[in-house]
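The data layer described in this paper is built around a simple, fixed record for each protein. Because each token names a local backbone shape, the row as a whole describes the fold. We quote a single record here, exactly as it is kept in our systems:

***
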Amino acid sequence: MNTPAFPTESGPVTLAGPAGRIEAVVELPAPAEARPLVAIVCHPLSTDGGSMHNKVVTMAARALRESGATTVRFNFRSVGASEGEFDHGEGEPDDLRAVAAWVRAQRPHDTLWLAGFSFGAYVTLSAAAELQPGLLLSIAPPVAGRGWDFTQIKHPNCPWLVIQGEADEIVDAEAVYAWVEQLKPPPELVRMPDTSHFFHHRLMDLRGAIKSGVRAYLPPASA
């Protein structure tokens, strides 16, 4: 499979991954707001219906584009048109690495950010120490009770924003708060009151929290 060039317009792209083809979508910011920045956004658990079209994922990508980033959403192996089988969090970080390698090869002068929701937060954090993003955004990271081991993950050496709903029915919010407190240095934590796991009726608040949280770390706008 040939390596596609980075698109100059928003649209779908098919990438080569370790388990076969990876289905992805690249979306560009408004030209007046564009910055030398690409953010990869990862989706929630594949076996629970998670995909790059999840509303939290698309809203996070929208917030990042409105901040000036080009965004890349993609489906992990076994989801949508992405080939391969679900690998229980073992192979999915390799999918992310393949997408990140393509972004960096095609846009070598741009800053790379990583964002993930739920299982996607686990995947991005798993690869962050190796990929060394300019910023890490973790939305509702499933730190307890979901089978993902966060204890062996290396702390990312970059600005790190964690957003957690206080009424999350899937991820234990108190476990997330306790986990954040024991990290050295701790990431910046945003608690969202009366907010469920999928941010029902709170997606616009999530958009605002992301835009506010990343503002200080944005690279200067392109000339």
